[in-house]
Inverse folding.
């Protein structure tokens, strides 16, 4: 079991700052980031900070398209949202397994991944109005 760091954020802005931190601290060494947590727990907000730190300023939820690709000076970031993944086959047709290991990939609703992927794991949970507990676990 790798290192686990636990944070509490008290606003969406603080969750963005944590996303920025995780990008700056870990995105050179690790390429795959899996986000786990219920609806509204702050996954897209976290990605907004994460991609923002790479210089990309227009993050939106890719719920309908399942994947958005953000060009950045640090290379492409694939923002994946598996909320609507119905059959695991769709993952393969998205080219998901090919992105892994090549580009930076950050995945919302990683609960729906059909297989184990080595990744930094981010668990978000709602603690109270405006408060989130977020843990970052290294592989
Ligand atoms: N500390 C916090 N961190 C992040 N978001 C917060 C926080 N406090 C309140 N919020 C609110 O919670 C919501 C989080 O929305 P966001 O789209 O980031 O969640 P999500 O986990 O991506 O949801 P979904 O499962 O629908 O994709 C926003 O409305 C945001 O304003
Ligand atoms: Mg989202």
């Amino acid at each position: 079991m790798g290192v686990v760091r636990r944070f509490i954020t008290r606003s969406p802005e603080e969750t963005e700052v944590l996303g920025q931190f995780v990008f700056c601290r870990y995105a050179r060494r690790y390429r795959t980031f899996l986000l786990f947590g219920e609806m509204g727990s702050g996954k897209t907000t976290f990605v907004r900070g994460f991609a923002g730190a790479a210089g990309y300023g227009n993050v939106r939820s890719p719920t309908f398209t399942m994947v958005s690709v953000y060009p950045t000076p640090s290379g492409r970031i694939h923002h994946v949202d598996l909320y609507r993944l119905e059959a695991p086959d769709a993952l393969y047709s998205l080219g998901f397994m090919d992105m892994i290991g090549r580009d930076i990939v950050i995945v919302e609703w990683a609960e729906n991944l059909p297989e184990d992927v080595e990744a930094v794991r981010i668990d978000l949970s709602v603690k109270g109005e405006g408060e989130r507990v977020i843990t970052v676990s290294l592989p």
